[in-house]
User: Which sequence fits this backbone?
């Protein structure tokens, strides 16, 4: 699978005539779900000419409540992600949470994602870098765009120049996030692809119910603004029925809404070139 991701990185990510999409369910719930999302999203992106990276977490380590769903088992979930990527000839990504997971996950995916809360963990960044995979670092909710240069420097110092950065909003009060679109411009100064996380940026975390809330009705607004401000890629978690999703359903995009959204975004991208 490595050649798919390498080609995408070298030839398509910096194509200013287009944006790329990272999309999939929040977490591997079942093989059937993962295959359904990947098949439909891949078909849409091929139709529209959008480079597509399949995304699913094999395990959710950062949960508010101990009762929250975390996964079906690491190996089983990673095997499903790899099987899906091979079937639809897609590069794939998943997030990792500690040093030991970097080498393990690298055997299954092309791109390692560093969660926002862990973006300053030097050992984790180094471990991801030494796998040779693309490393996509989500900007912490507590950091500014310019401060992400240190994450880039750590990964490059470990011998890996394939770094991406993702904006996902900043904490506002205790239970909300806001997006400062200046961060896209500032992070692009690092000469790396910059992605907008259109779904996690609409979370309403730290709810007393123990379940994170969200504002999915604003996904289109977040995505349009990201395209207008020069984002190279978009990150969108999607599910056929978000109300029944086992993780982050409150901020995911319903799968049948993805194609009309992408069509609008392509028209916007064309208009601002």
Assistant:
């Amino acid at each position: 699978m490595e050649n798919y991701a390498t080609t995408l990185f070298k030839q398509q990510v910096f194509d200013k005539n287009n944006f790329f999409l990272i999309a999939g369910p929040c977490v591997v719930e079942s093989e059937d779900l993962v295959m359904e999302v990947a098949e439909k999203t891949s078909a849409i992106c091929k139709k529209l000419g959008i480079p597509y990276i399949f995304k699913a977490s094999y395990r959710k380590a950062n949960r508010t409540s101990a009762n929250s769903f975390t996964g079906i088992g690491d190996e089983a979930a990673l095997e499903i992600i790899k099987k899906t990527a091979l079937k639809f000839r897609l590069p794939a990504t998943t997030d990792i949470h500690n040093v030991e997971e970097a080498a393990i996950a690298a055997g299954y995916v092309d791109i390692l994602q560093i969660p926002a809360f862990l973006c300053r963990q030097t050992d984790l960044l180094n471990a991801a870098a030494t796998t040779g995979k693309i490393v996509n670092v989500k900007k912490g909710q507590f950091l500014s765009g310019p401060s992400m240069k240190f994450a880039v420097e750590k990964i490059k110092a470990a011998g890996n120049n394939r770094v991406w950065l993702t904006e996902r909003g900043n904490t506002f009060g205790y239970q909300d996030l806001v997006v400062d679109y200046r961060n896209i411009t500032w992070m692009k100064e690092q000469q790396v692809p910059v992605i907008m996380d259109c779904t996690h940026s609409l979370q309403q975390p730290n709810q007393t119910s123990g379940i994170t809330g969200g504002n999915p009705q604003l996904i289109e607004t977040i995505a349009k603004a990201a395209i207008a401000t020069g984002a190279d890629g978009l990150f969108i978690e999607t599910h056929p029925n978000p109300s029944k999703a086992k993780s982050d359903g409150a901020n995911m995009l319903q799968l049948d809404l993805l194609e009309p959204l992408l069509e609008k975004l392509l028209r916007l991208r064309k208009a601002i070139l």
Remarks:
- The chain is about 35% helix and 20% strand.
